[in-house]
Amino acid sequence: MTQKPQKGQKMQKGQVRKRLRSAVVRRVTKETSVNLTLALDGSGRTKIKTPIPFFSHMLDAFCRFANLDVELTASGDLEIDQHHTVEDVGLALGQAIAEAVGDRAGVRRSASAFVPMDDALGFCSVDLSGRPFCAFDAKFDKNRQGDLELDLVSEFFKSLANTSKANWHLRVEYGENEHHKVEALFKSAGRALGEAVSRDPARAGVVPSTKGVLE
Ligand SMILES: [Mn+2]
């Protein structure tokens, strides 16, 4: 999608057309249903509804810290467990991010962020390399926080890495409170992503790779 010039307005020589960096993803399987719209150049406006309120809260924090505008609804076979739902939301969100960044021309590509939340410190480094990888280093002292099964936090980020085709390195540095630890991690991931997808004015239109292509 490119922004059309307004009536009577011509593109100036050398002017770079800004593509509207957004995506619509609908992912429906026998296990889950996920619908989402995502805009990269947003201001963190979110409307997120999953059947797992603490997970919705984390997705909301992630999108806000990345300045993404996201509307997301998800449902799934929670009578089995939360796995399919959390995994498929991660896959859909990663796909939307990949579609919205497109050929990754003119973006910063990589970024890292520490984000504290009271006693807890989260860290994330992300590279929109075109290749999926997830390194996850966090131990939780409880099986659940709120209604979210905490072993699924790593599953979410693995799914996100697979379809966003990016390298994600995540760590909870330390923390006492499980809510804070998980939330600091999602916020650091959002903050790093927001910077990685942001446009680098010095590199307008340039694919940030020595190969000239990121796939
Ligand atoms: Mn919270």
Give a quick summary of the entry.
This protein has one domain: Imidazole glycerol phosphate dehydratase, domain 1 (Ribosomal Protein S5, domain 2).
Question: Any overview of this molecule?
Answer:
The protein is an alpha+beta fold and 215 residues long. Helix 1 packs parallel to helix 4 and helix 2 (83-101) runs parallel beside helix 3 (152-164). The strands form three sheets. A four-stranded mixed β-sheet has the order 1-2-4-3, with helices on one face. The protein has a four-stranded mixed β-sheet with strand order 5-6-10-7. A two-stranded antiparallel sheet has the order 8-9. It has a single domain, classed as 2-Layer Sandwich (Ribosomal Protein S5, domain 2). The chain has helices at 53-65, 83-101, 152-164, 178-196, and strands at residues 22-28, 32-39, 46-49, 69-76, 110-117, 120-127, 133-137, 144-145, 148-149, 167-174. Bound molecules: manganese (II) ion. Residues 57, 179, 183 line the site of manganese (II) ion.
Could you name the key traits of this structure?
single chain; 215 residues; alpha+beta; Ribosomal Protein S5, domain 2; four-stranded mixed sheet; disordered N terminus; binds manganese (II) ion
How many domains make up the coordinates?
1
Fourth-level CATH superfamily: Imidazole glycerol phosphate dehydratase, domain 1
**What integer value in Å does the Rg equal?**
18 Å
Q: What letter string, H or E per element, gives the SSE order?
A: EEEHEHEEEEEHEH
N/C terminus separation: 20 Å
CATH class: Alpha Beta
Strand order of the largest sheet: 1-2-4-3
Low-confidence stretches: 1-5
Bound molecules: manganese (II) ion
Number-wise, the strands total 10
CATH architecture verdict: 2-Layer Sandwich
Largest sheet: 4 strands, mixed
Helix fraction? Answer: 25-40%
Number of helices: 4
Average predicted local confidence, pLDDT: 92
CATH topology call: Ribosomal Protein S5, domain 2
The helix/strand class is alpha+beta
